[in-house]
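pasting for ref
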Amino acid sequence: MGDLTKVMKAREGILDAVLDAYGRIGRDGSRSPAGMNFPTGAALAENLGYPRRVLDLAATGSVSSFVGAAPLPRYVLADRVTPVVADLGCGAGLDSLWLGSAGARVYSLEVSPEMISNLAASLEGEALNITPVLAFMPGLPLRTGSFTHAIMNGVANIIPDKISLMEELCRILVSGGQVLIADVLTIGEVDDSIRDEPEAWVWCVGGALSPGEWRELSRRAGFAKCEVSIEERFEPLARGIIRLIK
């Protein structure tokens, strides 16, 4: 029981840190962690190639709160289907707005009320097929076999129970549906002391996995295929995109 209690307390600490951090980001905008200097908010979105029309569509809070890792809507919209998308951990809502403005049906799930409020502000006066949903992952309050795509942009690594998350992702997809995950990957050794630090989970480092670990998780969850591409290296970590096909 001692080990189980330790695990549960650790997960509670991670959840509390994530809720506090994303509530603050939703209210005050994103900023890089102490000691690091990298773009956040509007500068990050522009660096990643988000279209100006999407940034103009978003409310100020949605742009300043952006903390994504890749322009995932571009990959979704490249598929020759009419997308029905679950945007999981939608955060500031830029991905949802990009997809919705391109004609996709989007369900935008987020744990932070502040982030949901930012997305709701962006949707005021806009006839977009976007439904904000306040929800905790890994459980997904979404219908089985209803989505062509699910996306997670800088979100998957903050979920401790990744196998349950992957099983839920597989459940909600149609046959042949895809999951696109953009996040930090490990390509070398990460000290256990970092993985035990809740703040490291907030910045997607504490919960980062290797490409091989993602492939094994996807197999266990029932996906037919897992592709991992490295977009940027900063050893022992990297920024990558994971594509899962049901």
